[in-house]
Structure formats: structure tokens, C-alpha cells
Design brief:
Blueprint: E1 5-10, H1 21-31, E2 33-38, H2 42-54, E3 58-62, H3 76-83, E4 88-97, H4 105-126, E5 130-135, H5 142-158, E6 164-166, H6 173-181, E7 185-188, H7 199-204, E8 210-212, H8 234-245, H9 249-264
Helix pairs in contact: 3-4, 4-5, 8-9
Length: about 270
């Protein structure tokens, strides 16, 4: 399929799409919009694969989110079976999320790091990139800094086999530079259409190390604020990236498609 746009991170298997999923996916196909639907635990990962099996313009990831399902124990063997599926293009979303930790702070951070490292090792084993989730505590970059400390050390061990993307990037330029140094990409969501907080970092990151995403059904971009997000709206993110970087829309669109092909093998 020839894509016009590609949303590298959505949750099309989410229950909010239960009533009209097929019509949304049909519209996407008619306009040449593809997406990666992202697993957040074992059941959601299986649901993502099931959707990807049904639609040629949908791909999947499998992984355990750092705090969406704290009751699940990460079973490497089970995830490895899923990760080897031909429509699975990444392991995750995985990483560190410190934003809502209010008690047993060090124990919770330790739990998240242990699960994160297991998923890094799985990604290397199956030779697929990581789909990273990072959310720091308020007014700091702690989760990103801890993620990068782990990734930088394991990069020495695994080299180019360790690769991936930091989804919904909300880091500063210093954090972005550290991701650049290890060859990781960063993706931006519809948030960049309604806040200027990330304007400088969008301009800073090389276009070859960037993706557009929606994180549907969340983070709906302007001019659709107030509605449920969907991968069709990734066009607004691409357009905003072009405006911020003062580059032609077509140049940005084509480079982002090339990045998707290179990083995720799509």
C-alpha cells in the first residue's frame, strides 16, 4: 500500500472505537493513512495483533506499559511469541512513568525499571525496535533521565540492535540530544497544535529522527479539539511540524514516511 500519511502510535483497538472502528479504518484506507496500534498489556497486545491481522494498513506493537496494568507480571516467553508475529513492528509501549507515583516511590520505580529492561532485552532478541513511553514527575525530566541511563548503558552492549522511538515526546532539548546520540527517534502528537511548549524541540530534532502520531483516542489536535481523536488527524500534526520548521509540507510528509519505513520496517 502507498501511504500518504502514517500515524506511528494509536490505540485503534480501544473500546472508544467499538461503535465505528470499521468505518474509521475504511476512511483511513481510502485516504492512504496507516497506523501502528499499540499494546499496553498482554490482552491489549493480543487485541492489537488481531486488528492488524484484519487490516493491511494497521500494524501492532506488544508490550507492558509501566503503570497501566500494575497487576500483570511480565512473562517474557508469552510476549516473545506475540513479538514474533509478522504484523508486530515494535516492542512496547514500555518505559518509565513517574507522573502519578504517590507512595512506595522507590519500590515502584524499581518495579518499572525491571520490566523496562526485560522488554529492552526482548526487543533486541527479536530484532525489533522499542516503542517507548516516558512521563516524568511534574516540573522535571526524571523518568526520561532514568530511561536514558538504562538505554545508554545497554546500547554499549547491544549496539545497533537496540533502537526505537520515544512516543509522545515531551522532553527538553537536552533529553532530545541524548536520544539523538543513541540513534533513537522521537514522535510528536496533536499536543503541538495547541501549545508552544515543544516548538523549540520540534525545530531542534533532525527531521530524519522524527515521527508524527495521534495517540488516538487521546490528545486530539486543533481544529478537532473536543472530539475523539483518530489516525486521520495525523495530517494536522505533520502540517504543524512543517510550519514550526519552516519546511515545505510535502518535504516533511515524505521524510516522515521514509522514517516510518526505516525504523519500523513498514
Amino acid at each position: 500500500m502507498n501511504y500518504a500519511f502514517f500515524d506511528i502510535h494509536s490505540h485503534m483497538h480501544d473500546k472508544s472505537f467499538d461503535e465505528d472502528r470499521e468505518s474509521v479504518l475504511d476512511e483511513m484506507k481510502s485516504y492512504g493513512v496507516g497506523t501502528i496500534t499499540v499494546g499496553t498489556d498482554i490482552n491489549e497486545s493480543k487485541n492489537a495483533i488481531a486488528l492488524a491481522e484484519k487490516y493491511p494498513h494497521v500494524y501492532a506493537t506488544v508490550g507492558l506499559h509501566p503503570n497501566d496494568n500494575k497487576d500483570e507480571k511480565f512473562e517474557t516467553d508469552e510476549y516473545e511469541k506475540l513479538a514474533l508475529h509478522e504484523k508486530v513492528v515494535a516492542v512496547g509501549e514500555c518505559g518509565l512513568d513517574y507522573f502519578r507515583i504517590t507512595e512506595n516511590i522507590e519500590m515502584e520505580k524499581s518495579r518499572q525499571k525491571e520490566i523496562f529492561i526485560k522488554q529492552i532485552e526482548l526487543a533486541v532478541k527479536v530484532n525489533k525496535p522499542l516503542m517507548l513511553h516516558g512521563r516524568p514527575s511534574k516540573d522535571c525530566m526524571d523518568a526520561y533521565e532514568d530511561m536514558l541511563t538504562i538505554l545508554e548503558e545497554l546500547k554499549k552492549k547491544y549496539g545497533n540492535k537496540l533502537r526505537g522511538n520515544a512516543h509522545f515526546f515531551a522532553g527538553n532539548i537536552d533529553v532530545a540530544q541524548r536520544f539523538i546520540n543513541i540513534g533513537f527517534t522521537m514522535s510528536f502528537s496533536g499536543v503541538i497544535t495547541f501549545t508552544k511548549d515543544y516548538d523549540d524541540v520540534v525545530r531542534f530534532i533532525p527531521l530524519t529522527l522524527m515521527h508524527a502520531e495521534t495517540d488516538s483516542p487521546y490528545a486530539t489536535p486543533i481544529p478537532y479539539r473536543g472530539k475523539r481523536n483518530n489516525p486521520m488527524y495525523v495530517q494536522e500534526v505533520v502540517a504543524r511540524i512543517a510550519v514550526l520548521r519552516e519546511q515545505p509540507m510535502e518535504e516533511v510528509r515524505m521524510q516522515l514516511l521514509e522514517n516510518t519505513k526505516r525504523v519500523f520496517g513498514i
